[in-house]
Fold this sequence. Notes:
Layout: H1 2-18, E1 41-44, E2 49-52, E3 56-59, E4 62-68, E5 75-79
Antiparallel strand pairs: 1-2, 3-4, 4-5
Amino acid sequence: MRAFLATSAIALGLTGCATQAPAPAEKPVAPAAAPAVKAPQCWNGDAGKFEDVGRQASISGVVVVCEKTSDGKNAQWMGAGKK
């Protein structure tokens, strides 16, 4: 009886291995295209959205303009000043 159980267990184990499908061949992954560089923007908390550079807004009652920082990678709100 033990021999039968051992033989059955081995047979089931081998059957389980034999019925597994081979793993599909992996396709080579092409390098992803570099994401487009976004222009800097300023966050307008009053409007709840980002504003483009050059956009004028009134934030908390103060007139400001979204301007690029000196490195050109970011933007910040600057006082519009009186002209």
